[in-house]
Amino acid sequence: MGLWRKFTQVAAGAAGFFVESDDEHTPGQRIDDAGFASALIALGAKMAKADGLVTAEEITAFREVFSADKGAQNDVARLFNLFRQTTLGYESYARRIARKFRCCPSILEDILDGLFHIARADGLVTDDEEAFLRRVSDIFGFSPREYRRIRASRLGQEPDDPYLILGIDHTIRDEDLQKAYRRMASANHPDRIIARGLPAEMQNLASKKMAMINLAYEKIRKERGMDTPPAH
Fold first, then answer.
1. Which CA distances in Å does 231 have to 66, 86, 226?
2. pTM of the model
3. Strand bridging mode 17-19 / 29-31
4. Which of 28, 124, 194, 221 fits a 20 to 30 Å CA distance from 56?
5. CA angle, corner 89, sides to 41 and 27, nearest 5?
């Protein structure tokens, strides 16, 4: 059972297990607080409510992100219906999650990716949803530029700026460019996503994100006349 599903199981009533991970960026940790896992579900439910209307598409997207075993699905649905009533309190839930994973930004980015998946499920990310996502990003500790990078990788905006996709400045040196690419590729490789326990839908999105990273690196290489092929 992956990390994400274990969180969901805790929210549904389990407690006190150890989350193991083979990902060097995601250390194993004790999850003793069912309230934390509930905060994760609350944040997803309140994301669906951010534009004032919870659509069928957003409910489906929530289920894709917060997958649960059959035995827990009714409890997760109950929590979702409770938290979807209002967006009030979402910042406190985001802070609880941020404190839990302050040393694991890759997991915080996974969670933000999941919120983007819910927000865009009905085909439109509204200003209210955008404000919700930006505020959660701030609470998670991401800089404005990091938020723009995550947003671009999820919504496909600003496709003409490959530097934004890689989260780097236009003045970066060639040797540092390659290092930055390798860091970004390593953190977002689909194998790492699988190791962090995200559900299949999020793994598919991760593959698309990886493709955007590779394309951005290739564009910059061509602009700079770099002959070395992309590192893998």
1. 33, 46, 12
2. 0.65
3. antiparallel
4. 194
5. 45
Residues 6 or more apart whose CB falls under 8 angstroms from that of 217 comprise 162, 166, 177, 181, 185, 230
3-class secondary-structure state, position 172? coil
Q: Are 119 and 133 in contact (CB under 8 A)?
A: yes
Distance from C-alpha of 152 to C-alpha of 188, rounded to nearest angstrom: 14
The tokens describing 39, both together, are: 């905060």
Q: Indicate the DSSP class of residue 229.
A: P
| C-beta separation of 163 from 117 below 8 A | no
How many CB atoms within 10 Å of residue 225? Answer: 7
Phi, psi (deg, nearest 5) at residue 59: -65, -40
Q: What are the phi and psi torsion angles at 225 (to 5°)?
A: 70, 30
Tens-digit pLDDT profile for residues 84-114: 999 999 999 999 989 888 888 888 888 898 8
Indicate the SS3 state at residue 206.
helix
Interval 161-197: pLDDT, tens: 888 888 888 889 998 999 989 888 887 777 776 666 6
Domain residue spans of the chain: 3-224
CA gap 124, 42 in Å, rounded: 21
